[in-house]
Design goal:
The chain is mostly helical. Helices cover 43% and strands 3% of the residues. It has helices at residues 15-21, 29-38, 43-50, 64-68, 82-91, 115-121, 128-135, 142-150, 152-167, and strands at residues 57-59, 101-103. Helix 6 packs across helix 8 (142-150).
């Protein structure tokens, strides 16, 4: 899809501020919805943008409690497929370092597709925040997940809309920031 160009970027990076605006990987559905609402995003945006986890990797530290001590119970998370649990425990032993990584999408980790949602249906969501979209009883997110499973083009169309919507959050104007010549470097 065509990405709008010309957005002004900050002249500095602020990790603390960035992390304040990112939902945590252990958030419940209610917390996810609240975090998205603060940014002007709705439930459809939440489910759609979470589909960005169809590729990429996560550090074991972002989900290790789900494997060994979910909510301080001393047990794994109840919404985690037991076969997947064993695979993840092999990749992320309890003494895993920050360098231990695993794919966000079990089935097609390097492809942008709708399989992320099928993984949720099979209780193979890596992050608890992902699995919440399908495993929260009675949630209004479940029909959205199911629609994206049944029609990849519906997911793609919604992803375009939600990405552009997200890209319009906190836009700098006037002489704030700069339009970068190379997106990962300040123009000096």
């Amino acid at each position: 899809f065509t990405v709008p160009l010309g957005r002004r970027d900050s002249l500095t990076a602020n990790r603390t501020l960035a992390n304040q605006n990112l939902p945590a990987p252990f958030f419940t559905l209610d917390k996810l919805k609240a975090a998205f609402a603060v940014q002007g995003l709705n439930t459809l945006d939440l489910v759609t943008l979470s589909g960005g986890h169809t590729f990429g990797r996560a550090r074991c530290s972002t989900f290790i409690n789900r494997l060994y001590n979910f909510n301080n119970t001393g047990n794994p998370g109840p919404t985690l497929n037991t076969t997947y649990l064993e695979l993840l425990r092999a990749r992320c032993p309890q003494n895993a370092t920050e360098n231990n990584l695993t794919s966000l999408d079990l089935t097609t980790p390097d492809q942008f597709d709708n399989r992320y949602y099928s993984n949720l249906q099979q209780l193979n969501g890596l992050l608890q925040s992902d699995q919440e979209l399908f495993s929260t009883p009675g949630a209004d997110t479940i029909p959205i997940v199911n629609s994206f499973i049944s029609n990849q083009n519906t997911f793609f169309a919604n992803f375009r809309v939600s990405m552009i919507k997200m890209g319009n959050i906190g836009v700098l104007t006037g002489d704030e920031g700069e339009i970068r010549s190379q997106c990962n470097f300040v123009n000096y």
